[in-house]
Amino acid sequence: MKRLIENDLMFGNLIRVDSQAWIGLYNRALKKLTGRETSLPEFHIDIGGFSPEIGDELGDMNYLSPKGGERQFILLTTEQKTAPMLNADLSVLRDVMRGFITRNESQLFGLTARDAVIGQIDDRVWALETPADLMQLRDLGVTADTTGNHVAEADRLGRMIEDFRTRPDGWWDDVLIARMIEQARKSGDVLRNPIRLTHTEFAMPDFWTADFGGVYLCRSCAEPAMIFADPDQAIEVSGMRMLTLDAPHQVAAWLARNALAEPIISASGADAAAILRQKMDFILADAAIRLGLDTGDGSRSELRRVASRMGADLPAEIKGLSALHRYAQNGGDWPVIDSGDPAYFYALRGTPGPLRDLVNRLLAEMAPHDVRQLFITHKPRFYSLYRTWPEAKRDYVVRILAREYAIDKQGTREALFGSEPGMQEAQIPSHRTGPWGPARVKLAEAELSRPAGPWGRASGGTD
After folding, report:
1. Hey, is 11 helix, strand or coil?
2. What share of the chain is helix, strand, coil (3-state, %, to 5)?
3. How far apart are CA 273 and CA 266, in angstroms?
4. Which residues neighbour 436 within 8 Å (Cβ) at sequence distance 6 or greater?
5. In the 8-state DSSP scheme, what is residue 335?
6. What does the alpha-carbon distance between residue 157 and residue 432 come to, in Å, rounded to a whole number?
7. Average pLDDT value for residue range 327-337
8. pLDDT per position as a tens digit, 180-234
9. What are the CA-CA distances from residue 58 to residues 9, 30, 61 (Å)?
C-alpha cells in the first residue's frame, strides 16, 4: 500500500492539519465523540474528519465509525468538501457529506471559524441482521453541532425570542428577558447571524453496501433489484428481483431491460477505440504477468509483442474487444457479442442518470481486469484485490494509474463515463427501452434465456 500512497492513489486529496489551533479543535471534538485524543503534531483528514494517521496511532481505523454505530464526523473547515471519504462501507456516504456541507456552507463556515462541528450520519435502522433489512434504508439524516453546542444554544435563544414576540405579556416578563440576555451571551445575535442547519435529509433509493458480502440495491428503475456479490448471502426479498454476480446472463438482461448500460462503441462523446484499446492493454498485462512473461516497460508495443507469444493462453476477452476496436476504427459489420462472451461487460458503461455511477461500479466487478475503472468506481474492491496481486502487477497498475489517471482525474472520468449527471436527471420514467431498443426477452423468460445484446441476439444455452 505504500506505493499507492506515494503516488497519490491512496489517501490522496486529504486536508492537512498542522496548526496548533486546528489540532486543538480536533482533539476537543475527538474527546467529545470518542473519549480519546491524538498526540500527533500533524495529520490529514478526509471529508468526514477521519485521519488514517490517527487511526494508526489509536490502533483503530474505525474510530469514527464504532461497530454497530453511526458514521460520526468532525468538520474543521468547509474545504473538507473536496476531500474523499475513506473506509466508506456505503456508496452514498460521501455524496451525503458533500451535500450537507455545500447546502449549509455559509452556516458551517461561520461555525467552523470558532469551533469544530461534530455530528453523525443516521440511517435510522437499529440493526441489519439479514439482507432484507437493507430495504429499510431509504434516507439518511445528518445531525450536527459544534463542540460548544452553538447550534443548540442558538435554537434555544430562537425559541425564547419567538415566545417573547408572541406572548401578550412578553414585554413585562422580566425573567424571560433576563434569560434571553444570558442566552445571547452564549449564542450571539441570532437575528443578524442566524444559525440553522436546514439541509439535513438525503434520500438514498439506490446504493452499494459492503454488508452481507457486498450488495447493490437499485430501486429507482422499472424493475427494482438486489444484486449480491456473494451468492451464499442471496435471499429473495418481496418486490425485488434477486440477482448474483455469478449469473452474468441474468445481470445483462436486467441491465438491458432497464436501460442502465450502453455499449461504449455507440456512447455519445466517447472515444471508443481509445477506451477499448486501453482495456485490452490491462487484460494483456494481467495475463502476461500471470504467465511469467516479461512486459518490459509495459508500453503498448511491448504488450503486443508479448501477446504474439501467448498462443492458446491469449485471454478470451481479447477476441471480442479486438473486433469492437476494429469496428470503432474502420467500420464494417457490427460484431456479434452476447453476455456469454468474456468481453461483454468490458464493452459497456452506465447510461446517464442517477444510477450511472452505481452501474459503473457493478460493471467494474463484472470486468475486474479493467483496473482503471475498478480503481475509479469501486476503491474498496480495488484495494482488496491489490493486496492479492503479485509485485509485478502492482508496479504496472500503479505506474499506469499515476500516469493516465492521477494527473487529470476529472478529465479521465468524463472521457470514460461521460459528464456528471445533473440534478434534472433524478427522475426516471417508469418504463424505458434499452440502449439497443426494446428488450427482446419477456420478463418471465429472462431467467431462462440470454438477453439480446447490442451486437445481436444472444446465442447458447440457458443460464
Report:
1. coil
2. 45, 10, 40
3. 11
4. 256, 263, 452, 453, 454
5. P
6. 52
7. 84
8. 566 566 655 444 444 567 788 999 999 999 999 999 999 999 999 999 999 999 9
9. 24, 12, 8
DSSP 429-453: -S---BBTBS-SS-GGGTTTS---B
Closest by alpha carbon to 362, among 237, 250, 227, 263? 227
Spatial contact of 80 and 15, defined as CB atoms under 8 Å apart? yes
Q: Give the burial class of 378: count Cβ atoms within 10 A of its Cβ; 0-12 exposed, 13-18 middle, 19 or more buried.
A: buried
Task: Give pLDDT tens digits for 297-309.
Answer: 777 888 888 888 8
| Sole residue written with cell 448471502 | 233
Find the largest Cα–Cα distance for the chain.
95
What does the alpha-carbon distance between residue 392 and residue 374 come to, in Å, rounded to a whole number?
18
pLDDT in tens, 243-277: 999 999 999 999 999 999 999 998 888 889 999 99
Q: Tell me the DSSP string of 86-117.
A: TT-SBTTHHHHHHHHHHHTHHHHHHHHTTS-E
C-alpha cell at 109: 463556515
Round to whole Å and give the CA distance between 20 and 36. 17
Cβ atoms of 36 and 30 within 8 Å: the answer is: yes
User: Cell digits for 70?
Assistant: 453511526
Q: What is the CA radius of gyration of the chain?
A: 26
How many helices (DSSP H) and strands (DSSP E) are in the chain? 16, 12
8 Å CB contact between 370 and 376: no
Counted residue by residue, the chain has a size of 463
Contact 289, 392 (CB under 8 A): yes
State the DSSP string of 363-399: HHHHSTT-HHHHHHH-HHHHHHHHTTS-HHHHHHHHH
Secondary structure of 204-264 in HEC code, one letter for each residue: CCEEEECHHHCEEEECCCCCCEEEECCHHHCCCCCCCEEEECCCHHHHHHHHHHCCCEEEH
Q: How far is CA 267 from CA 270, 320, 365, 391, 435, in A?
A: 6, 18, 21, 35, 9
Lay out the sheet containing 215-218: strands in order across: 206-209, 215-218, 225-228, 241-244
Write the CA distances from 34 to 87, 118, 152, 322, integer angstroms.
18, 11, 20, 55
